[in-house]
């Protein structure tokens, strides 16, 4: 091998030059490895953060859904409690209207209008009467307080309603007090 001394620095001989190139190559490879490791770590960190973000997003969505459901349940619970408090007033109106002895027709008509308005407002708020008369006895809807034998009527059929029952949407807020056939 012919070495041109003009191309080489004066203080380096060929073995030193090869060592320097080897060191530079190793340094470059090390830097490339570090960069690759850095990129790999960053990719892992990005993936981790994306997963955390998606989990937080799902948690927030579930929280909103649960909060909405709880709010609706609390509203229905409050409506049911209010209905239970005011239904005796409607019962009294209906008892007063059921009398045969009407002395003042205008007063009677006024009471009837108030009772009708009361029922309409309850219906607007999804509070409806349970149809019980002549229906098969259902312990989920009816509260049997009397049992009586009646000819021509099958057993376990409601033959009289002593107090009307009401439902709020699909939930019974007050079962109907009934007399059942034997």
Task: Please explain how this structure is put together.
The chain has helices at about 15-95, 105-125; strands at about 125-130, 140-150, 160-165, 165-170, 170-175, 175-180. With about 180 residues, it is of the alpha+beta class. A hairpin with a 2-residue loop joins strand 4 and strand 5 (about 170-175). Helix 1 (about 15-95) runs antiparallel to helix 2. The relative contact order is 0.09.
Brief characterization of the structure:
57% of the residues lie in helices and 16% in strands. With 182 residues, it is of the alpha+beta class. The longest helix is centred in the first third of the chain and has 84 residues, at 14-97.
SSE diagram, text form:
Elements: H1 14-97, H2 105-124, E1 127-129, E2 142-148, E3 158-163, E4 166-168, E5 171-174, E6 176-181
Parallel strand pairs: 2-6
Antiparallel strand pairs: 1-4, 3-6, 4-5
Helix pairs in contact: 1-2
Query: What value does the average pLDDT take?
Result: 86
% residues in beta strands: 15-25%
- Main pleated sheet: 3 strands, antiparallel
Structural class: alpha+beta
Radius of gyration: 43 Å
Percent range of helical residues: 55-70%
Counting DSSP H or I runs of 4 or more residues, the number of helices is 2
């Amino acid at each position: 091998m012919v070495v041109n001394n003009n191309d080489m620095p004066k203080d380096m001989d060929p073995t030193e030059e090869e060592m320097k190139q080897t060191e530079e190559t190793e340094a470059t490879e090390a830097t490339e490895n570090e960069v690759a490791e850095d990129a790999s770590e960053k990719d892992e960190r990005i993936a981790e953060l994306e997963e955390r973000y998606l989990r937080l997003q799902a948690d927030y969505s579930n929280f909103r859904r649960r909060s909405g459901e709880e709010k609706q349940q609390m509203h229905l619970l409050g409506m049911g409690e209010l209905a239970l408090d005011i239904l005796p007033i409607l019962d009294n109106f209906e008892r007063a209207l059921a009398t045969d002895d009407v002395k003042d027709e205008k007063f009677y008509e006024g009471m009837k209008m108030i009772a009708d308005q009361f029922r309409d407002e309850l219906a607007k708020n999804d509070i409806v009467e349970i149809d019980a008369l002549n229906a098969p006895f259902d312990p989920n809807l009816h509260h049997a307080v009397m049992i009586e034998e009646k000819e021509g009527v099958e057993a376990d059929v409601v033959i009289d309603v002593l107090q009307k029952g009401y439902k709020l949407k699909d939930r019974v807020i007050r079962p109907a007090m009934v007399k059942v056939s034997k």
